[in-house]
Design goal:
By secondary structure, the protein is α/β, with parallel strands linked by helices. The chain contains 10 helices and 8 strands.
C-alpha cells in the first residue's frame, strides 16, 4: 500500500503532456482552460445524451456526483493500492449515527476527501493487502506512476481539434503499459465483459491508448492496457482483462464518435436530449407475442 502525499492545491502548467503531481480533486474539476472531453463524459454523451454530458461536466452543468458508502469502499481500497486519490479522512467513531460523526463526515466531503470509519479503514487495508498478494501471484507489479494525468488533443473530421483529459490509474510509461483498477461484485469474465461495454471501459481503452500514442509517438501501437477487475469480498478474486479484437474496434469507433459529437456541441452550443422532436414507437416483439399468447389461451 502506498502513502498519498498529494495536496489539493495545484499551480503547475496545464498543457498537452503528462502531469504526475495533480491531485484528483483538481483533475475532476477539469484543469484545462476550456471544457475538456474525458472518457467518462464521452460515454455519457453516447449512452445517454449530449444534455446529460453537459450536466455532468464540471465546467458546464457542474452536477456533483452523489456520495455513497458503496462507492466510498471501492475508492478507499483504490487509494490504498495506488497511494493516490482524494485523500482519506479517518473518523473516530463506530458509525455515523451520532451528530459529531455526521459533522466530521460532512466536513470531509466538503473538503473533497473520503470519510472512513476507523473500523472500515482497517477492513479496507486488509482487502488491499489481499489484493496486492494476488497481483504478485499474477506477476503484475505497480512499479510506475499512479494517477498520471494526460492532456492531449484529438483531431476532428473537419479539421479542428478537441482538448481531452484522462487520469490513468497506473502508468509504466517506457513500457507503454497502463493498469486500471475496477472494483466489481463479481470478477467472473462474463461479468467483466459486460461491464466493459455497460460502463464505457471500451471507450476508456480507446481514449487512453490514443493519448499515449499522441503524447509519445514512439509508443504508438505498442500500448498494453490491462483492466484489473477486483472483488472486494472473499475470495478477493482479480481478473486481468486486456481488450482485444472487436472490443478494441468497438471502443475506438465510440471514442471517435464521442470526439465528433463533443466538437459539434461545443461549436454549435446545442446540447440535445434523447430526441429533437416527436418520435413514433412500435410495440416490442416480446409484448406482442405475450399478448397474442394471452388471446390464444382465452
Amino acid at each position: 500500500m502506498r502513502e498519498n502525499n498529494r495536496i489539493e492545491v495545484y499551480a503547475g502548467p496545464v498543457a498537452p503532456g503528462f502531469i504526475y503531481d495533480m491531485p484528483a480533486a483538481v483533475y475532476h474539476r477539469d484543469p484545462c482552460d476550456t471544457p475538456s472531453l474525458s472518457a467518462s463524459i464521452g460515454h455519457r454523451l453516447l449512452s445517454e445524451s449530449p444534455k446529460h454530458a453537459w450536466l455532468a461536466h464540471p465546467k458546464l452543468g457542474g452536477a456533483a456526483a452523489k456520495n455513497s458508502k458503496a462507492f466510498d469502499r471501492g475508492s478507499i481500497v483504490h487509494e490504498l493500492l495506488l497511494g493516490c486519490g482524494k485523500g482519506l479522512e479517518p473518523i473516530d467513531a463506530e458509525d455515523f449515527k451520532t451528530k459529531a460523526a455526521r459533522e466530521s463526515r460532512d466536513a470531509a466531503y466538503a473538503a473533497g476527501k473520503t470519510p472512513v470509519l476507523q473500523g472500515d479503514l482497517a477492513d479496507a487495508m486488509d482487502v488491499a493487502r489481499r489484493l496486492e498478494e494476488q497481483l504478485d501471484d499474477l506477476g503484475i507489479l505497480l512499479n510506475g506512476t499512479s494517477e498520471t494525468v494526460a492532456i492531449w488533443e484529438e483531431p476532428t473530421q473537419f479539421g479542428g481539434s478537441v482538448i481531452c483529459r484522462g487520469m490513468m490509474d497506473h502508468l509504466i510509461l517506457d513500457a507503454a503499459t497502463i493498469y486500471d483498477i475496477k472494483s466489481i461484485r463479481s470478477a467472473n469474465p462474463k461479468v467483466c465483459q459486460r461491464h466493459m461495454v455497460e460502463y464505457g471501459y471500451d471507450i476508456q481503452w480507446a481514449a487512453y491508448t490514443s493519448a499515449l500514442g499522441k503524447l509519445r509517438p514512439d509508443l504508438a501501437g505498442r500500448t498494453d492496457f490491462v483492466f484489473l477487475f477486483c472483488e472486494l469480498d472473499p475470495p478477493y478474486c482479480i481478473t486481468p482483462v486486456r481488450p482485444s479484437g472487436s472490443m478494441r474496434q468497438l471502443g475506438q469507433s465510440k471514442w471517435d464518435r464521442a470526439v465528433e459529437s463533443w466538437s459539434f456541441c461545443r461549436t454549435s452550443g446545442k446540447w440535445r436530449g434523447y430526441t429533437e422532436g416527436i418520435i413514433e414507437v412500435e410495440a416490442p416483439p416480446w409484448a406482442m407475442a405475450q399478448e397474442l399468447g394471452s388471446d390464444a389461451a382465452a
